[in-house]
Amino acid sequence: MNTSNAQELPRAVDLSMLIEPHWRFGPEFGEKELEKPHFTFHSTLLRMAAHAFSHCDAPFHVSPDMETIDEMGLDRFFGPARMVDVSGHGDRAALGEKELREGGAAALQPGEIALIRSDHELRHPTTTPQYWVDSPWITAGEARFLLDCGIKAVGFDFPRTGEFARTTTLISCRALTRSRTGPVTPSS
Questions:
Q1: pLDDT per residue over 96-144, tens digit each?
Q2: Measuring CA to CA, which residue among 113, 47, 108 is closest to residue 76?
Q3: Which of 26, 77, 95, 145 is 20 to 30 A from 111, alpha carbon to alpha carbon?
């Protein structure tokens, strides 16, 4: 293959959570066959909730006056990203602005995607209840700090459950809608 004119492609990293049997989501796997005159068409079936595994919460998820997923441009889902490493803080850690800055968030640039890395899945497999009940969580202050950095999206490697789930989901969604709504002050 002649590569003299080939352009270097940007590196893409798949951060998806594996879709597998799970105590909470229970995806259903199956197969379907459709016989044709000269072959049999085989297909795999998957049935699961849209709000499971790796997914994007559309802003509409928390507020009916915000965007639905089909109103969001694809450019909001990819681009330059910066990892913020909070992995040293462990289970049930309240992650605030101090912890984010220590993890590298001070270097976030407007328009980047912030990826919050806790390594929580290394302590508790994603298929166990402990993954969900012992996860770290972001404080409202951390979420405001991320918005003030001008990020266009934020991703977490831990679930946002418990006491601060609604606040962090709302703030994550508002980060995604920043380009349309302007700066916002998240509510607790």
A1: 899 999 999 999 999 999 999 999 999 999 888 888 888 898 877 778 8
A2: 113
A3: 95
